[in-house]
Each structure stands twice: as C-alpha cells, then as structure tokens.
Amino acid sequence: MSAYLAERVQLAFDRCKEFPEAGARGGYFMVRGDAYLALIELRNMAPEIVLALGRADQT
C-alpha cells in the first residue's frame, strides 16, 4: 500500500471516530456530517485498498 493511500485511509478513519453516540431522535439517527462524509470516503476507497492489499500479499 502506498504511503499516500495509507495516509488517506488513516485521516478518514480518524474523522470517523468523531461519530457521536446520539442515538435515535424522532425516528432519525443523528450523526455529524463530516464524520458521515469520512465514512463515505472510506467506502469509496475500498476497491483501491483491496487492490493495494492484494499486491502487498503477492510480494
């Protein structure tokens, strides 16, 4: 895995740790917007991460 990809993953993961434990309010689950965007960013990086891990496993 490249250092750049590892850094991107770590930054997004750190932002995901910001999820509040707010629970449900009025039928909705409340989360901070920036933390939710970080989760989406991690999801979007998943194919890139899987490819990088596959290459690392072959070496």
Structure description:
- There is one protein chain.
- The protein is mainly alpha-helical and 59 residues long.
- The chain has one domain (2-57).
- Helices cover 68% and strands 7% of the residues.
- It has helices at 3-16, 33-58; strands at residues 24-25, 28-29.
- Strands 1-2 form a two-stranded antiparallel ribbon.
- A hairpin with a 2-residue loop joins strand 1 and strand 2 (28-29).
- The longest helix has 26 residues, at 33-58.
- The chain is elongated.
- The chain starts with a helix and ends with a helix.
Strand order of the largest sheet: 1-2
The helix/strand series, from N terminus to C terminus, equals: HEEH
Largest beta-sheet characterization:
2 strands, antiparallel
Backbone shape: elongated
- Class derived from helix and strand content: mainly alpha
Would you tell me the overall average pLDDT?
79
Distance between the termini: 11 Å
Helical proportion, percent range: 55-70%
List the uncertain runs. none
Number of discrete helical segments: 2
In percent terms, what proportion of residues is strand? Answer: 5-15%
As for the number of domains, it is: 1
CA-atom Rg in angstroms: 15 Å
Summary of the model, kept short:
This protein is mainly α.
Please outline the helices and strands.
Blueprint: H1 3-16, E1 24-25, E2 28-29, H2 33-58
Antiparallel strand pairs: 1-2
Helix pairs in contact: 1-2
List keywords for this structure.
59 residues, mainly alpha, two-stranded antiparallel sheet, 2 helices
